[in-house]
C-alpha cells in the first residue's frame, strides 16, 4: 500500500523520505560567498554506494565512505556496469545490428556523439554475432555542462531549520518500520540506514551552475550525479545529435524509427537477487533494495518507498505509483462503507417485508417472461432473487451513493494536495517542460510549409488551419463510427438475450429451465466480456490510425489525442451493456397482450419478477472480476513467459545461464521493453476501474472492495514487472498525472448523474417510498418503516386476463401443473388498471405519482450532491497549510541569505578600501 495513506495529506512530507526543499535559483544570491563559508556549514554525507553496500549499522566517516565506494566499484566492474577499464560507468546503451543498412547515418551520429564529449565503447553480443552494444559514458565536464543547460537542481547547502521536525518525523517512522520489519534486521536499527537517500533531503537545492560549483555539496564526482540523472543527461544529448546534414536530421528517436538502432536504454543497477541475506549484509544496489522492500510479494502490506522509486525510475513513474497508492489507500473507507451497506442488507434480510411477501406468495401466478415456451411462474419462486436484491437495494443505498460522490471529490482534492507536496519535495514546483521537438511524421508531411515559431524565433513546419480541422472532422467521424460499432455489439447481445431466454425456458435440464432468465443473463455477460476484449484490440488499431491521421505536432499532443480516443472507446465498450441493463432493460417492453417487439418478431426482454437490479449486479460483478483477473494474468504473464522463453533459448543455444553468466547490458537487452505507450496501459486500467467503482456503485456496493483487493495486487504486480521483467525505462520528469486528472473529474461528475438514475429508475427505492407515504398502512402519518410496507408487492403488480394474450404469446401450458387448475389471471410488474375497469390496462394514478417522485429525486439528488462536492472542493485548499508555511519560511530564509550576502559584500569592499587607504598612507612622502 502507498505510504501516504497512513497519514493526513497535509503532513510535512512523504513518509519514505525527508522532503527536498526547492529554491528558486538561490545560488545567484550566494555568488559572493566564500567557498570556506559554504563548505563549513554542511556535514559530510554518505554517497549511494556507501549506503547500499555497507552492513546495516554503518559509519558516516570519510574513510568508511571511501572504502565502501571502492567496494561498489569492484562490484560494478564484475557485474558489467562499467567500461572494460572498470572505472567509467555505463550511462546508456545503444544496440544495433551489423546487418542494418543505415550505416552512414549511424557512423555520423556516433562521430557527433564523440564531438559532444561522450565516451564510447563497442562490444559484440555473446549470443548473437550480428548484435553490437554501444556503451556510452558521460565524463564530469559533460555532465556539468548539460546539467547547467538543463537546469538540473542539485544540493548546495544543508538545512537546519527543519531539523527538529525531521527528528520527530524519523522517530515516528522508526517505530512504525520496526513494528513491521520485513527486509530490516531483527535488531531495531536506525531508519536512515535502510533507505539510501535520506541525506539528500537535508539540503537546499538549486539549478546547477559551473561558475558557482563551489557552493554545491560535492564529496565524490562519480556519485554527485546519480545514475538516473546521468542517464537523463545522456538521453538529452542523444536527442540533439545530428545523423545527417540538415536542420532537422537529428535525434535518437528518429534513428530508432528507421531501424538504425534496435534498442536504447539505461542499465539496471545490477541484479535484483543476492546470495547474501539482506537483513545481515544490506542491499547491494538500488534495484535489489527496491525488490526487497517494494516488488517482492511478501511485502504487500508495507508502504511504498516513493523517494527511492523516484530516484531509480524518475518522477513520472514515481508519480504514477504515488497516485496508485493514494487511490488504493482512499479505497479503504469506500470499501468499508460498501461492505457495511452489504452487511446491513444481510442483517435486515429477515425483517424485509417485501421479501417476506414475495416468498409467501405461493398463490400468485406471474405472466410468462417470453413467448410460448416460458411457463407461468409462482411469485414465490423469486424468493431467493428478492433476498439477493435486498442485499444491494436497501435503505442504505442512497446514503452510499451520496457517500461515493463525496468520496470521489475528496479523493481528487486531497490528491491535488498530495501531488503539491510531492512536487515540492521532488523539486518540481518550478520545473517546466522543455519545448518539445516536432514529431518526425509531422515534419515530413509539412516540411514545405514553414512559419516562424513565436517562442524560439526559428522557422518550423506549419499545418494550415483548413487541413488541421478537416483532419479533425474525419477523425471525429471515425470515433462516431466506432461508437456505432459498440452500439451494434450491444444490440447483438440484446438479440441473444431475447432469443436464448426462450431456448433456456424449453431446456431439458430442469435447473436451467427453472432459472432461464438468470442463465440468459450469465451467459450474455460472459459473451459480452469476450466481445469487449476483442473490440479492445480493434480499438487500439483504430485509435492509432485516427491519431496519426490528425498529424499532431508534438509527442505530447499525440499522446493526449491517443489517450482521449482510447479512453472513450474502451469506456463506451466496457459500460455500454451496463447502461443498457441499468436504464433500458424492461423499460420499453409494453405489457402482456401488447408487447413491443424487435423487428416485429421478438418480444423484448423483461426484468425478473424481483426487479432489474439483480441483472445489473450480475453484469457488474462478472465483468469487474473477469476483466481485472484477465488484465493481471496478461500483464504479468506475458513478460514472464517471454523472458522465460528467451532464457530457455539462450541456454539451449549457448549452454549458458542467461541470468548470471552474461554482463548487465546483455541481460537487460534480453528483458522486455516497456510498453510502447509508456504508462498509458497502467493508467487506463485504473481509470476504467475508477469508473466502474463510482458510476454504478449504488447498484453494486461491493465494487470498491473488489477494486481495493485488485489494487493491493496491482501495486506489487506493477512493481515486480518494473523491477524484474522490464528493461529500465528512461527516468523522466513530470509535475502531475497529466490528462488523466481531467478524465477523473469527468467520471466523478458522470457518477453523480448515473447513480441518481440508478436509484430512481433501476432500484425500487422510490416506488417503495411512495407506497409507504401515500398508499400503505402508514399513509398520511409521516413515517415509513417495514410495517408500513405491508401489501406493497400486491400494489406493485398489475392484473392481466389470460384470454387477452396474443396468439404468438400464449404459453403452451395453462399453469395447471403449478396451481392445480388453469390460470385465468396472471400478474406483471407495472401500475395499470385491471382488465374489468372502465379503461383497462391504462396507467393508474400511482404510476404518475411514482414517475413524479423519480424525477423529483433525480433533480434533488443531483443538486444536493453537486452542492456538497462544490463546497468540499472550496473548503479543501490545494496546498496544505504546513507546505505553505514551509514555502514562506524558505522565502524568509532566502531573504536572510540575500541580506547576509550583501552585508558580507559591503564589509569586504569596506575592508578593501581600508587596506588600500593604509597602503597609500605608507607611501606618502
TrEMBL record:
Coiled-coil positions: 889-916
Membrane topology: Multi-pass membrane protein
Primary location recorded for the protein, binned into one broad class: membrane
Domain Anoctamin transmembrane residue range list: 309-890
MF (Gene Ontology): intracellularly calcium-gated chloride channel activity; protein dimerization activity
Transmembrane segments: 320-347, 396-415, 519-539, 567-586, 686-709, 737-761, 851-876
Subcellular location: Cell membrane; Membrane
GO cellular component: plasma membrane
Similarity comment: family membership: Belongs to the anoctamin family.
Full protein name: Anoctamin
Organism: Mugilogobius chulae
